[in-house]
Amino acid sequence: MTKPEPVLEVKNLTTRFNTQDGTVHAVTNISFNLNKGEFLGVVGESGSGKSVTMMSLLRLIPIPPGEIVSGEAIFDGEDLIGMDDRDLRDVRGGRIGFVFQDPMTSLNPVIKVGPQIIEALLTHRNISKSEAHDRAFELLEMVGIPDPDARLDSYPHEFSGGMRQRAMIAIALACSPEVVIADEPTTALDVTIQAQIIQIVKDLRDQLGTAVIWITHDLGVIASLADRVIVMYGGQIVEEGPVAEIYGNPQHPYTKALLRSVPRLDQKGDNLESIKGQPPSMYSAPTSCVFAPRCEYAYDRCREENPVLEQISEGHRSACWWDIEKGATRHDR
User: pLDDT by residue (tens digit) across 108-161?
Assistant: First the structure.
């Protein structure tokens, strides 16, 4: 079997925010790979570090108060974290596209949609304005916006929420990037439009071979889209593996609890299961398992030492001292 070829390798990424109330340890020692043409899902509750991780890769977090303390993001042999600003601008929007959560705050409200797409093309591609206009028309058509010629001449406020998100996807895909990062792109949309946006991204991935990182808290979306899943909690990766393995055989208590909290048609009863307790305070660096205060399996070691993310089967990693399947400690000191 051919080993997957990574297009992006993230190693020991740590990001903090220095605030008046103290230092927020938003992301701690994150490491993962994204393979060529892969659809990678990133899940976890609000505040788990999903968006900060991906924005840190392209240095999109505000500095200050943000600070990328350490880590590497190797893309085509170069480290994005250490890259100079000019080279990084060529990568952003050109070779790596980013679809933000709220298109209304991402699109310039006083510039028509067409010129915004054309600007991305002229910035990153050596083409004429007429060629860029034709490409912008093709992109709006590709993402399913009706009457694309007229819509190129429309302002963002004249688009519906779903159309604005499609326009953002068009901008992200304008230069045929190798990677697209989508940060909860369907959160504010109704379920019908969500399904359409998801299908568009899936079709474009299949057509263009673009690798996709899809950030979401919707486990149902990931089940139907992703090849592989990363589960985040408290600014750390707690589990990672193929989507079928994660959903069918979760090996971290947080993943198991997340899956139990998803409504299912085949379950009777009116009550949804919830995860007891509160998310961790991010004002102190983790020295123990971040999920231990809410975990039904926690024992002494969990409260004393932060577990490392280690391989438990082929392509499946978990950060837990407890073996759920065996009902025993995974290994002792």
Answer: 888 998 898 898 888 888 888 888 898 889 888 877 788 888 898 989 888 887
Look at residue 11 and give its three-state secondary structure.
strand
Q: Please report, for residues 14, 67, 128, 217, 230, the alpha-carbon distance to residue 52 in angstroms, rounded to integers and kept in the order given.
A: 10, 11, 36, 14, 14
Euclidean distance between the first and the last CA atom of the chain, given in angstroms as a whole number: 35
pTM value > 0.70 = yes
* CB contact set of 286 (below 8 Å; sequence gap of 6+): 25, 28, 234, 235, 236, 280, 306
Q: Which residue in the block uniquely carries the two structure tokens 């994150």?
A: 30
Q: Which residues pair with 9 in a beta bridge?
A: 33, 74
Per-residue burial over 193-222, b if 16 or more Cβ lie within 10 Å, else e, is bbebbbebbeebbeeeebbbbbbbbbbebb
- Output the 3-class SS for 67-117: EEEEEEEEECCEECCCCCHHHHHHHECCCEEEECCCHHHHCCCCCCHHHHH
